[in-house]
Write a structure and sequence with these properties.
There is one protein chain. α2 runs parallel beside α3 and α6 packs across α15. The protein is elongated and about 75 Å long. By secondary structure, it is α/β, with parallel strands linked by helices. The chain has 15 helices and 13 strands. The longest helix is centred in the first third of the chain and has 22 residues. It has an 8-stranded mixed sheet, with helices on both faces. A 5-stranded parallel sheet has the order 2-1-3-4-5, sandwiched between helices. It is about 45% helix and about 15% strand. The chain folds into 2 domains: about 130 residues, Rossmann fold, CATH 3.40.50.2300; about 240 residues, 3-Layer(aba) Sandwich (Rossmann fold). α4 links the parallel β4 and β5.
C-alpha cells in the first residue's frame, strides 16, 4: 500500500501542486488547510509523513508541531516543514520544535520528492529499532462502576497462567485506586512516585522498582488511594516515559483506563494495540458505549486496531437486555458475557484476593480464561 502523506498549508494552490507532485511519486495524499484540521487528520488519517507550513492563521506551524510532539498518539509521525520562511532563526525554531527536515519554497519537484523519501526511510529505520513485540491492551467503559478494574486484574492472571510471560496490569488514574483496597495494598504509591519524577529520570529501573510482583504471577502498578494525588493526572511527559518503559519490559501490558471521565483516556488509549470495552445489560449503557466506540474510531480502533467488547452482568435480574439485544444495540459483536457472582465477590473482598482465585473452577473464572484464549488466538 502507498505511503500516506498529510500536506498542511492554508494556500490551496500549494496544497494542489504539492499533492500533484507527490501523487506522481506514488504517494497517497491527504490535505489540511489549517492547524486544527491538521491535528484532527493526523489522528484520523494516520499519515506516514506530515508536510507542514509555518505561516497559517489561528495556529501556526510551530504550534502545530508542538502539539504533535506532545500527543502520544501522533508524536512519532515524521514532519517535514515546508515554508517560505528561509531565515536561520526560523530553521532553528523549526528543529527545536521537533521537525525531521526543513525545506524552503520554492523547490524543484525532484528535490522535494528526494527529501520525502529520505525522511520516510529514516522514520522506517527508527521504527524498527524501537519496535516492541509487547501486546498493550487498554480497558475502559462508557461509565464507571462496570467492573473494568476487576476484569483487568483477573484477565492478567489468566494471560499469565497461559503464557508464563511478563504480564503487568496498571492503574492509570492517580488518587483513585481500586486495587489498593481490594488487594490489601492501601499504602500503594507506585503510580504517584513515577508521575512526580522528572521525565528524563524515568528509566526502566525507575518503573520496575514500583511494580509489585504478586503471589499469582502478575506485576501490578497501583495508583495511590489518596485523593490529593489526583493533581498529577496532567503530567503527560511522565505518562509517556512510564508507558514507554512498561511496553519494553512487558509481554502483556494491561492498562486500566477507567472511563472517558479520565482526562487522559485518549492519550493512554492511543498507545494501545487493542482495546477491551466493558458494557452491561442496560439500554442507557448501550447508547453511551456506542457513542464511545464512535469516538474511538478517530484513534483507529475498529479499523487498524482491534476492539473487543465484553459484557459484565453484575446483578441477577430478569429485566435486562439479552446478549443478542445488547449486540444489536451496540452494533458490534460481544466476545462473551461475564455472569453475576455476588457470593464470590464478597469472598474476594473479605480475603483481599482476585475474584478468579476464590473459586478457580467457577463459571466466572472459566470466562476469564476463555477471554484470555480469545485474545491470544487473535495474535
Amino acid at each position: 500500500m502507498a505511503e500516506k502523506i498529510l500536506i498542511v498549508d492554508d494556500d490551496l494552490e500549494t496544497l494542489r501542486l504539492v499533492g500533484l507532485i507527490l501523487e506522481r511519486g506514488g504517494y497517497q495524499i491527504a490535505a489540511a488547510s489549517s492547524g486544527q484540521q491538521a491535528l484532527t487528520m493526523a489522528h484520523s488519517e494516520s499519515p506516514n509523513l506530515i508536510i507542514l507550513d509555518i505561516m497559517m492563521p489561528e495556529m501556526d506551524g510551530y504550534q502545530v508541531m508542538k502539539n504533535i510532539r506532545q500527543d502520544p498518539a501522533i508524536s512519532n509521525i515524521p514532519v517535514l516543514m515546508f515554508t517560505a520562511k528561509a531565515g536561520i532563526e526560523d530553521k532553528i525554531t523549526g528543529y527545536e520544535t521537533g521537525v525531521d527536515d526543513y525545506l524552503t519554497k520554492p523547490i524543484h519537484p525532484a528535490e522535494l520528492v528526494a527529501h520525502v523519501k529520505a525522511v520516510l526511510s529514516r522514520a522506517a529505520s527508527k521504527m524498527k529499532e524501537t519496535q516492541t513485540n509487547s501486546t498493550i491492551m487498554g480497558f475502559l467503559a462508557a461509565r464507571g462502576g462496570l467492573g473494568v478494574s476487576t476484569l483487568v486484574v483477573n484477565l492478567a492472571i489468566a494471560l499469565y497462567n497461559r503464557t508464563q510471560k511478563f504480564t503487568a496490569a496498571v492503574e492509570t488514574i492517580p488518587g483513585y485506586s481500586s486495587w489498593a483496597w481490594e488487594l490489601g495494598h492501601s499504602d500503594s504509591e507506585g503510580l504517584n512516585k513515577i508521575l512526580t519524577t522528572a521525565p528524563e529520570d524515568i528509566t526502566r529501573n525507575t518503573v520496575k522498582n514500583e511494580l509489585i510482583l504478586t503471589s499469582f504471577g502478575i506485576h501490578l502498578l497501583m495508583a495511590s488511594p489518596k485523593l490529593k494525588d489526583q493533581e498529577t493526572i496532567n503530567n503527560t511527559p511522565q505518562y509517556q516515559a512510564m508507558l514507554r518503559e512498561l511496553s519494553e519490559m512487558s509481554e502483556y501490558l494491561l492498562l486500566d483506563i477507567g472511563s472517558p471521565g479520565n482526562p487522559n483516556w485518549r492519550r493512554i488509549l492511543s498507545t494501545c494495540n487493542e482495546a477491551i470495552v466493558v458494557v452491561d445489560p442496560d439500554p442507557t449503557t448501550m447508547r453511551r458505549t456506542k457513542a464511545l466506540l464512535q469516538e474511538m474510531e478517530s484513534l483507529g480502533f475498529g479499523k487498524s486496531r482491534k476492539i473487543t467488547a465484553v459484557a459484565v452482568n453484575r446483578a441477577r435480574s430478569d429485566i435486562q437486555l439479552t446478549l443478542p439485544q445488547m449486540q444489536e444495540a451496540l452494533g458490534t459483536p460481544i466476545a462473551l458475557l461475564m455472569p453475576p457472582a455476588p457470593e464470590m465477590a464478597y469472598q474476594a473482598a473479605t480475603r483481599a484476593v482476585p475474584l478468579s482465585l476464590v473459586q478457580p473452577e467457577s463459571l466466572l473464572s472459566q470466562q476469564f480464561n476463555r477471554l484470555a484464549e480469545i485474545l491470544l488466538a487473535s495474535k
